[in-house]
Design a protein that fits this description.
Layout lengths: L1 H10 L2 E8 L2 E8 L1 E2 L5 E7 L3 H8 L2 E7 L10 E11 L3 H14 L4 H4 L4 E15 L3 E6 L5
Antiparallel strand pairs: 1-2, 1-5, 3-4, 4-7, 5-6, 6-7, 7-8
Pfam family, one: PNPOx_N
GO cellular component, one term: cytosol
GO molecular function: coenzyme F420 binding; oxidoreductase activity, acting on the CH-CH group of donors
């Protein structure tokens, strides 16, 4: 099952991000990049957005990744990822993460030129894999250093 989870994270590049803030819950369709070990998800957002304000207010997030574009309806897998989002600030990490986004998401190159961007690291705390309409598996992830 962990292999399925890892595959879902690595083979997809879009997720739905759920945040919570003073105005309540908010969802956003997001491009993402996974870390090489699949234990972290990287997001990028302009700082003048509701999702950024929500991330600053409440770092607990939920992401959903699924196979609906590739699988027949009865075989769709959906992965709910829970985690903690923190804004990245280390210059070397920002440079490498920006390069990954430009490589994996060339349609975002214009966005990457903005100076008012926040790169967010989501440390995965737990996942729930829905495998078809009835099989669900929950995995608590070990704490990250």
């Amino acid at each position: 099952m962990l292999a399925q989870i890892d595959t879902l994270i690595r083979e997809n590049t879009l997720c739905v991000l759920a945040t919570a803030g003073k105005e309540g819950p908010h969802t956003s369709l997001m491009a993402y990049v996974a870390s090489s070990d699949g234990k972290q998800i990287f997001l990028v957002t302009p700082k003048d957005t509701l999702k950024y304000r929500n991330l600053c207010h409440q770092p607990k997030v939920s992401l959903m990744v699924d196979t609906r574009e590739r699988a027949p309806r009865g075989q769709v897998q959906a992965l709910t990822i829970n985690g903690l989002a923190v804004e990245m600030t280390v210059p070397a990490e920002l440079v490498s993460t920006r390069a990954l986004f430009e490589e994996q998401h060339p349609h975002l190159r214009r966005l990457m030129q903005s100076e008012q961007l926040a790169f967010m690291r989501v440390a995965i705390t737990s996942v729930q894999l829905l495998d078809g309409p009835q099989k669900a598996h929950f995995v608590q992830m070990p704490p990250q250093p």
